[in-house]
Amino acid sequence: MHLRLASLVLSLSSLVCACVGDHDGGGASASATVGITTVMHGTGDGTLQDLLTTGTGDGTTDDGVGGGTEAVKLDLGVSADFGPLVEAGCESIDVLFVVDISASMNEEKANLDANFPSFVSVLDAYVGDPGNQAMGYRLGVTNSSIVANKAGKSTMGLDGALFDGENLFDDDCEMGGELWIDGPAPAVASTFSCLAADPRSSCNLCTDLGRERPLDAIEMFLAKAGPGGVNDGFYRGDASLLVIVLLTDEDDDVGNTTTTPAGTKAALDKFTGGDQRYVVVTIAGPRDVACDSTFGSADPAPTLHAFTSMVPNGMLGDICQGDLAQALDQALALIQLSCDTLPPPVG
After folding, report:
1. Architecture of domain 92-340
2. pLDDT 10s per residue in the chain (347 long)?
3. Most buried residue, 43, 128, 222, 283, by CB count within 10 Å?
4. What residue spans define the domains of the chain?
5. What is the pTM of this model?
6. Residues 250, 100: contact at Cβ < 8 Å?
7. With helix as H, strand as E and coil as C, how does the chain read?
8. Which one, of 94, 1, 95, 93, lies nearest residue 44 by Cα?
């Protein structure tokens, strides 16, 4: 069981606020203002006692660098009620891949296909570990194309709907009428490879304008995930961690988009019940300049960088590395940590 403290308000007569740093330089941290201490997740095993008893026994704390600092002292009076300890951790992980279907993405999708079996193996091991609360995961795919654009229609777009595996080029990817893949299961990797290779609509005489709009796709996905929507049931609610993976070599199209990075974050916050209840992994080009790799070229992606940087559990991967293995490994580490420390919905 993991306990997580977030935005803990201390209504005390005397309070000393401190910033709590990570002992190895790269994990838990805390920011504090008068009356409020916010503990950002690190290992997921932190408790209130950990914060209050960081001393060495002589009134100082070891800062992990070589010096001591005064221990945090809270004048709690006779007693203090911090409320009930909150059980944290997710029971399921629901992962949505938003894939750029441009022809320029063929190499990247092939590399995703090559790396995906190991991605699945790590997820299988994680949910199979009896020490973790997570019992399963779910994978779904949509694309980043939206049908209606100012310059015309991109009829290959799915408008945020989950891809069912059926279009003019492929069979149903053995989905059996389902819109997502539940794991662990023997054919997860092969079924996903079929889905992610060509997630396009089954229209006749399809066209794609190359106007990538992943932020609109996320918001449309959320709208369709409500009761009665085509995506209803994919996200399993309070005990589930939602993960969004964006894979594109272009930025969000500012000339056609109907939203902003802040607007998409707000939509995710509302849908999941708090900005610590989802993960965003963006694998795209650099923020300011184009790049080239064995995959080809990628445009700068300032809008997607801005969006991902707003998300507490956000991660940016470089599509120009020429191999997605490192980005996927980092994404898995973030997903597991975020699942371990998933808080209950706000409000």
Report:
1. 3-Layer(aba) Sandwich (3.40)
2. 434 333 333 333 333 333 333 444 443 333 333 222 222 333 444 433 333 333 444 444 444 434 444 444 344 455 555 555 556 899 999 999 999 988 888 888 889 989 999 999 999 999 999 999 999 999 999 999 888 877 777 678 889 999 988 765 556 688 878 999 999 999 999 999 888 888 887 765 566 666 789 999 999 999 999 999 999 999 999 999 999 999 999 999 999 999 999 999 999 999 999 999 999 999 999 999 999 988 888 999 999 999 999 999 999 999 998 899 999 999 999 999 999 999 999 97
3. 283
4. 1-88, 92-340
5. 0.75
6. yes
7. CEECCCCEECCCCECCCCCCCCCCCCCCEEEEECCEEEEECCCCCCCHHHHHCCECCCCEEECCCCCEEECCCCECCCCCCCCCCCEECCCEEEEEEEECCCHHHHHHHHHHHHHHHHHHHHHHHHHHCCCCCCCEEEEEEEECECCEECCEECCCCCCCCCCCCCCCCCCCCCCCCCCCEEECCCCHHHHHHHHHHCCCCCCCCCCCCCCECHHHHHHHHHHHCCCCCCCCCCCCCCCEEEEEEEECCCCCCCCCCCCCHHHHHHHHHHHHCCCCCEEEEEEECCCCCCEEECCEEECCCHHHHHHHHHCCCEEEEEHHHCCCHHHHHHHHHHHHHHHHCCCCCCC
8. 1
> Two tokens at 16?
């000393």
CA distance 78 to 124: 48
